Predict the structure.
Amino acid sequence: MDFFIDTADLDEIRKAKDYGILDGVTTNPSLIAKTGKPFKKVIAEIATLVPGDVSAEVLSLDLDGILREGRELAKIAGNIVIKVPLIAEGIKAVKIFSGEGIKTNVTLCFSSMQALLAAKAGATYISPFVGRLDDISHDGMELIQEIVTIYQNYDYSTKVLAASIRHPIHLKTAALMGADVATIPFKVFDMLVKHPLTDKGLEQFIEDSKKFHWD
Ligand code: G3P
């Protein structure tokens, strides 16, 4: 499973990268806004810092605008993936980007039929938002399972990127279901390594290690 970090904060990206297991970064307009810096500058900095795929989201909703912005963002670095919203114009744009060799991440996916359209258009990634479905009392993880099954049934190469992850159980369930990628907020990333029994066991080992010498 690939691990992406869902942030535009360079400090968070550096800290996650230090683990040595970070495969990429996803951003969205809300995350970019939090940095207070110009969009293209932030994306260029992230793409230099992380060699893996870095998703940058278009802002236009019409086909010409999506294509113009996507092509402009794709020129920033070779690892930029164009994030496109799951609307009719977005699907049309993904098909065109796919023909041009531009990688895409289709975002704001809330149904398996939307995900099927994205795969048929040649999307590189599909981003089902699990947390936001949970927020309205739908089972976000059920959507991941449906998409994984449908993509397997027809051998689509589009990668399932579990997004809007709010806690480690979302990640665990996505991994059990076979999602290809998870994009994880730094707060959740930081939780993954922690277990109270690890701390307790370590405390005992350190105490006992005082009873003998190394050589
Ligand atoms: O980047 C897309 C997604 O992960 C957003 O998550 O927590 O704003 O629903 P959230």
Summary: The chain has one domain: 2-209.
